Amino acid sequence: MIQAILVFNNHGKPRLVRFYQHFPEEIQQQIVRETFHLVLKRDDNICNFLEGGSLIGGSDYKLIYRHYATLYFVFCVDSSESELGILDLIQHLLIFFLIAPKVFVETLDKCFENVCELDLIFHMDKVHYILQEVVMGGMVLETNMNEIVAQIEAQNRLEKSEGGLSAAPARAVSAVKNINLPEIPRNINIGDLNIKVPNLSQFV
Amino acid sequence: MPAVSKGDGMRGLAVFISDIRNCKSKEAEIKRINKELANIRSKFKGDKALDGYSKKKYVCKLLFIFLLGHDIDFGHMEAVNLLSSNRYTEKQIGYLFISVLVNSNSELIRLINNAIKNDLASRNPTFMGLALHCIANVGSREMAEAFAGEVPKILVAGDTMDSVKQSAALCLLRLYRTSPDLVPMGDWTSRVVHLLNDQHLGVVTAATSLITTLAQKNPEEFKTSVSLAVSRLSRIVTSASTDLQDYTYYFVPAPWLSVKLLRLLQCYPPPEDPAVRGRLTECLETILNKAQEPPKSKKVQHSNAKNAVLFEAISLIIHHDSEPNLLVRACNQLGQFLQHRETNLRYLALESMCTLASSEFSHEAVKTHIDTVINALKTERDVSVRQRAVDLLYAMCDRSNAQQIVAEMLSYLETADYSIREEIVLKVAILAEKYAVDYAWYVDTILNLIRIAGDYVSEEVWYRVIQIVINRDDVQGYAAKTVFEALQAPACHENLVKVGGYILGEFGNLIAGDPRSSPLVQFNLLHSKFHLCSVPTRALLLSTYIKFVNLFPEVKTTIQDVLRSDSQLKNADVELQQRAVEYLRLSTVASTDILATVLEEMPPFPERESSILAKLKKKKGPSTVTDLEDTKRERSVDVNGGPEPAPASTSAASTPSPSADLLGLGAAPAAPAGPPPSSGGGLLVDVFSDSASAVAPLAPGSEDNFARFVCKNNGVLFENQLLQIGLKSEFRQNLGRMFIFYGNKTSTQFLNFTPTLICPDDLQSRLNLQTKPVDPTVDGGAQVQQVVNIECVSDFTEAPVLNIQFRYGGTFQNVSVQLPITLNKFFQPTEMSSQDFFQRWKQLSNPQQEVQNIFKAKHPMDTEITKAKIIGFGSALLEEVDPNPANFVGAGIIHTKTTQIGCLLRLEPNLQAQMYRLTLRTSKETVSQRLCELLSQQF
């Protein structure tokens, strides 16, 4: 089971925090800090697994993480999850978080140097919805990229039909349609994204 | 402010986030947040009703503030209101707020539950999905109470959409996790199992997760899932990489589902059905084969997905632990990963190999990688990986490589990360003790440990070295000499002073002949450390000094002078002062004889579980100490009701504890200094005999074997790949003697070999068993014998259990078999005429005295064999007694210490029906009953 999904930046600022096991608020904050200190002191290019901090249950839990541009993506899981599987799941989510806001909202302002981090906070609600399509109650709900995209697309249509509030620009909707969906996971062109995320190459 | 342009319509939110990001200080940030909170609060409280858009915007702001670590104590009501909106976007944000900011406010939960109930009933799949997500994410008990009945129905209903089914499965899983008592098993369980056959792989994945969790607690209920999971897995692994389309991930077909299915199969033993088992073995072989194929893509995702499946398959192979071929192949494959360039794979390979090392089939194969693992310990940059390497070395250690592994761990210890030093110290101490052939080596190792990492050497470790030195007289002289030399170092660790003080106090006389370590030199050496030590160590040294007074009369005056000094007699510490006063007095008034008695050498400590092992378990948690023995023992520790009763009592007995010393002197001057061994020892024995009750379940097939011994006394009782147990027994009247032969079938020594006879409570008063312990080491190919003297006190039904525990290679073995001591063994045959027989038969006509059983023949109905069995049973076979010559009758007397019981039996075969009727008449109901049971099994 996934106990928590924590995303914070290089300074330890939380950018996405999702607990699937109930902890009081202040403990949640402490867990984020403790986890940050655990992963911060690790070099890049060493292994992506380590034992959990004391607050979240110590050696019975594993932290599986990726350091990506300015962000750390950390999954705290128990022994029932496959480490490599979770690592791929993080990869999945990264792709979504990077692409989805661009697809569904407006094209992003190119002058931001750390687009990816800001995407998360400016589209907090979207990010949560995407996450919900992938992880539910601490278990992985869906791993099929097309299925997930279809769900998000459906959500988007609903939003649009309700009009007003956050009606996605027509441009974005057509972008969704034009994406060759089956190709997203397999042939995502990391080179393109490289412009915005300089050290993405580390996990290629 | 470029950020504002990024907003997707909620401009206010974007402005707020940008403001926060632009705050120069923490104070400014808090100020801005408080301003916003006040603003939102006033908007929520205001008279003007907010529209959906505003509510949504404010809730988003609150979520952001919460993310930054600020408490949100309002807004819940507004979020609940959004739940009942008909607009999807508003409902969605309401659910999001509730899921993230779970609140156990029961008032609110009822409202939330109401909204959820409406959405579940709406038949709108999108709304149902939102509601199920909310239940799964909050997962509170109140929600379980409200929806545990409803969710299973949605899950198995025929018209539920796939995406809703998926959500319902995981939702139910979450409810089961929080409140298993509220999720009743029912008709739906069998339908859930059949979801494994579903067309939609997403549904199958979710169902597999659900079944895995349910099956762990209710294995019987979900047994049918095994064959379905195997066939599903088989279809996936044999499919071409394009068959599963969207579920193919970087050329690997449905890796996530494969992993889940392999996990599910780990809830069960290997399938019994040979067809299913064959198919599973094929799958596992295919996975191992595919892992060897050249990669279809250079992307890391391809290798991750492929290897995720491979590692899970290997876990299953280890879990089944029944296919030596697969185990060895798995080991080889992991061996390749040990040198893989991907750190993650090296890490996982080390981790998997750790469990592989505890299987008797693959232990040797794992050992071949020792050099690679040692190299990993030396060269890995990542502490996580090094730690796994330490774990693996510990798991693969046995007598053949202990010296090498311990040496490597010691040298690693010098540079190891502080966070894992204590654990390594414990591991080294355990290995050194467990595999010590030469106890001098053991002593050296522990002293090295103290030298290298003294601060991390816990009390348990140095207590243990003292216990061992005291129990082994062959190492005492060496130990004294070594600690004496170690203490010469100008700066030595306090733990070394403790060990040195204790050992020289006990065995300093063994090296006193050498003028370089004469009594006075020893004393001066110890005393030179005295003032640098803490109070407990000084107290220990004072005890050493009084022991010196006894051992070496020539230093008595020197020591008395020290004790008499103001710094001792007037010490501010009460304990030290008391010791000084009492020891000084003791040395003045007691005669040499009394002194010698009081300060007699420590008696040996009773053998018991190493306290260090308990410490390691406590530190690492039972699941991470991979040693099989440890997990078994862990259970026995729990039986005793405390987390670590053994170490607690160990330290009571072995600490040169100040209070115990003084108690010994004050209360009973004749008792040796130190802990009163009788009481302490007794306590430990009690603790230990309790823990021995964690015996293995009876070995499979032992029932059959047991039945075979009812009518005979000699033969093989039990046999597996390692061990053979033979029996030879003789009985006379109410007494018997049984010889048990334990044969080691392997070429490796069995260690800690301990057979234990266990009588259930009731049996203890009815059957007396006496035996002596056997030698704890059984050499390869050797046989040891144990004699059990048996006395039957009164008639009995149950059979004693023989539990054998021993260590073979690195693994702990635990075997239990029923010992065939049955009531009929105490039969004395009685010959009698036909007339006598029927006369007695009629005397025993009371209905309680007769027991009859009619049963189908299990063996061919051969007259001669039947006769032999009745004689073997112990009664006399009476010929020409029964008017029907086809019938068999027998008579005898059961002898017990308290009484004798006459028994008559009659067996009537019916060849046509292939049935028997057996009638027993005895003067005691329980005896008739038991004899009838025993004899019925024989035909």
Automatic annotation (TrEMBL), chain A:
Q: Tell me its family.
A: Belongs to the adaptor complexes small subunit family.
Mind telling me which InterPro entries this protein's record contains? AP_complex_ssu, AP_mu_sigma_su, APS3, Clathrin_sm-chain_CS, Longin-like_dom_sf
Query: Chief location of this protein?
Result: membrane
Q: Give the GO cellular component terms, alphabetically.
A: AP-3 adaptor complex; cytoplasmic vesicle membrane; Golgi apparatus
Q: Which Pfam families does the entry link to?
A: Clat_adaptor_s (PF01217)
Where the record annotates domain AP complex mu/sigma subunit, the positions are 1-158
This chain belongs to the protein called Adaptor related protein complex 3 subunit sigma 2
Q: Name one GO biological process term.
A: Golgi to vacuole transport
* PROSITE patterns named in the record: CLAT_ADAPTOR_S (PS00989)
- Keyword terms: Cytoplasmic vesicle, Golgi apparatus, Membrane, Protein transport, Transport
Question: In the record, what lineage is assigned to the organism producing the protein?
Answer: Eukaryota, Metazoa, Chordata, Craniata, Vertebrata
**CDD domains given in the database record:** AP3_sigma
Q: Which organism is it from?
A: Propithecus coquereli (Coquerel's sifaka)
Give the quaternary structure. Answer: Adaptor protein complex 3 (AP-3) is a heterotetramer composed of two large adaptins (delta-type subunit AP3D1 and beta-type subunit AP3B1 or AP3B2), a medium adaptin (mu-type subunit AP3M1 or AP3M2) and a small adaptin (sigma-type subunit APS1 or AP3S2). Interacts with AGAP1. AP-3 associates with the BLOC-1 complex.
From TrEMBL, chain B:
Q: Where in the cell is it found?
A: Cell membrane; Membrane, Coated pit
A Pfam family matched by this chain, by name?
Answer: Alpha_adaptin_C
Q: Which GO terms describe its cellular component?
A: AP-2 adaptor complex; presynapse
Extract the coiled-coil ranges from the record: none
- Write out the residues that bind a 1,2-diacyl-sn-glycero-3-phospho-(1D-myo-inositol-3,4,5-trisphosphate): 11-12, 43, 53, 57-61
SUPFAM superfamilies linked: ARM repeat (SSF48371), Clathrin adaptor appendage domain (SSF49348), Subdomain of clathrin and coatomer appendage domain (SSF55711)
Membrane topology for this entry? Peripheral membrane protein
Asked if Membrane is a keyword of the record, the answer is yes
Disordered, as annotated region: 613-678
State the Gene Ontology BP annotations.
clathrin-dependent endocytosis; intracellular protein transport; synaptic vesicle endocytosis
Question: Compositionally biased, Low complexity: which spans?
Answer: 647-671
Keywords, A to Z?
Cell membrane, Coated pit, Endocytosis, Membrane, Protein transport, Transport
Gene Ontology terms, MF aspect: clathrin adaptor activity; disordered domain specific binding; protein kinase binding
Which Gene3D superfamilies does the record cross-reference, listed alphabetically?
2.60.40.1230, Leucine-rich Repeat Variant (1.25.10.10), TATA-Binding Protein (3.30.310.10)
| Superkingdom, natural source | Eukaryota
Quote the InterPro entries the UniProt record gives.
Adaptor_Complx_Large_Subunit (IPR050840), AP2_complex_asu (IPR017104), ARM-like (IPR011989), ARM-type_fold (IPR016024), Clathrin/coatomer_adapt-like_N (IPR002553), Clathrin_a-adaptin_app_sub_C (IPR003164), Clathrin_a/b/g-adaptin_app_Ig (IPR008152), Clathrin_app_Ig-like_sf (IPR013041)
Residue span, Clathrin adaptor alpha/beta/gamma-adaptin appendage Ig-like subdomain domain:
707-820
UniProt similarity note: Belongs to the adaptor complexes large subunit family.
| Record note on quaternary structure | Adaptor protein complex 2 (AP-2) is a heterotetramer composed of two large adaptins (alpha-type subunit AP2A1 or AP2A2 and beta-type subunit AP2B1), a medium adaptin (mu-type subunit AP2M1) and a small adaptin (sigma-type subunit AP2S1).
Q: What does this protein do?
A: Component of the adaptor protein complex 2 (AP-2). Adaptor protein complexes function in protein transport via transport vesicles in different membrane traffic pathways. Adaptor protein complexes are vesicle coat components and appear to be involved in cargo selection and vesicle formation. AP-2 is involved in clathrin-dependent endocytosis in which cargo proteins are incorporated into vesicles surrounded by clathrin (clathrin-coated vesicles, CCVs) which are destined for fusion with the early endosome.
What is the designated name of this protein? Answer: AP-2 complex subunit alpha
Q: Which gene encodes it?
A: AP2A2
